[in-house]
Fold this protein.
Amino acid sequence: MKFAAYFNSAPVVNSAALIPLPSLTPASVVDILVVAFLIYQALMIVKGTRAGHILIGILIMVALYVVALYTGLEALRSVLSYIVPYLALAVIILFQSEIRRTLARLGRKRWFARGYQRPEFAEDILIALRRLAADKTGALIVVERDIGLRTFIETGVRLDAQLSSDLLLAIFHPGGALHDGAVILQKDRIPAANCFLPLALNPALSSSFGTRHRAAIGITEETDCLSLVVSEGSGRISVAAFGELTPGLNLREVDERICTHFGVRRSAPHLIEEFAADIPMEADPAERSEPK
């Protein structure tokens, strides 16, 4: 009887009073996937960079503040309370280059694009690359797409000349005044040569990459351009886009990269015969030490 009276007097838990779990709807699934995608992209941006360590430090400070708040560590909470509110401003200042790069990537995609036509300048570039690779002459060619490169054009020597393979070969002729810098192309024009480009600071990059290759990667991290590099000493042709470098390409593969980067689904026939521009070899010491 006592047990019966106890159970009869025990409070009845109303299931309706419990916090209901939200129902999983198609909109909820899409919401979760979008948030997960944004978090993943944010982590990929800072992965392998100095910003990744800064982000870890900020997260540690936030975690310490939460721990101090719930455990009653008033001294620690008081100190962190003056720091945590300014973390948002610190993130904007410290991650300004990463934020700028992310916004630029969002603007790269043509959501309502009508498609590009095959770049008319591709043939002149391929002819010049074939000669430069055969002669093992170092070169860096940057092709502008949607994001303007005026800031970097102003660092070089103004040419405003019509693009031609002969002009590219003359610019990169060893010993010339314009040989060391980068040539920037705007469609079928060469606005400037001997331009200075930002270097990629990603510590995950191979130590075999010289200054020329790091500059090719660095400019594609900030803009949607395409960088074409010929390694001095080995003649290897590399292509950089969206912060990633693909080394050791032949001319047909370079042509495909150009067409793909500018939205061409099917490459048109061209006059350049397939040429193996890369010979497997050890890291080129000249490329690591040359200040170009």
